[in-house]
Amino acid sequence: MNRSIDVLKEIYKPYRYTIKGSSTIIESTSGNFVIKPKTKDLKELFDYLNSRNFHNFPKLVDSSRSDTYVFEYLNDISMPQEQRIQDLITLVAKLHNKTSFYKEVSEDKYKSIYEDIKNNILYLKEYYNNLFDISYNDIYLSPSKYLFMRNYTKIKDCLLFCEAELDKWYDLVKDIRKQRVSVVHNNLALRHFLRNEESYLISWDKALIDTPILDIINLYKNEYYHTTFEPILSKYFELVSLHEDEKTLLFIMLSLPWQVKETSSEFDNCKNYNELLDYIYKTEKLIRPYYSKK
């Protein structure tokens, strides 16, 4: 890639260039461009999106090289974060609606998803149960262990909820032989959204065809800590009509806690348990209204 960048510098003759992560931004008299490593065929993806009347991605200026892409540089305006994420979710809904279709799936498709999530839940239940049993016999608890013990029931209840909802979800889909899929950006975060006269999604390297709820899961996990997500989810549901099984799976994947691996740093252990518990409480608050309506 370094050789390609040197060649491109000769072509565009930039008066300034900036390295930002794996990207190189060049400013020249002929315009501003972004050079990124080529990790997948984005031209084919962008051609498809254009055919579906979705044009909200950076213009691909040069895709002829084997190791790099050259994109048109997009300016981004300053705006409140709450407004930015509203614009982002509106654009994501547009992407899903423009590219969704139903594909045939085998009878093992949903069973495989069920078993993968079930095994993860069972593993987490055993992990936290064992941790509780070990800590229960400690005479003096460290601050992190005390935090865990005080909130063990919350973690346990969260896992039981996910397990029960997973069984309900499988009952809904076990006889279905079609699945709604769409283009999924698969790397949604505010840092991958730009706004000027139009809204744009950047960093499409992980895009794929899959269930659209993947984008909502990724966005929530990336932004839940700094964002009030209730209006975001409500806006998405207003724009995209998810089926009951899709919503159920979404709520399971949002609710599923992760494993806190303890370290030698007590400060980090407390921080990690606190992050998990904060996530569990925020997610419960997010999805509770949808269950009270049932």
Structure explained in plain terms:
The chain has helices at 2-12, 42-51, 81-99, 107-136, 143-173, 213-223, 230-239, 244-255, 266-292, and strands at residues 16-20, 23-28, 31-37, 60-62, 68-72, 101-104, 178-184, 193-195, 199-201, 208-210. With 294 residues, it is of the alpha+beta class. It folds into 2 domains: 2-73, Phosphorylase Kinase, domain 1 (2-Layer Sandwich); 97-292, Aminoglycoside phosphotransferase (APH), C-terminal lobe (Aminoglycoside 3'-phosphotransferase, Chain: A, domain 2), CATH 3.90.1200. Strands 1-2-3-5-4 form a 5-stranded antiparallel beta sheet, covered by helices on one side. Strands 6-7-10 form a 3-stranded antiparallel beta sheet. A hairpin with a 2-residue loop joins strand 1 (16-20) and strand 2. Helix 5 packs antiparallel against helix 8. The longest helix has 31 residues, at 143-173. The chain is globular. The chain starts with a helix and ends with a helix.
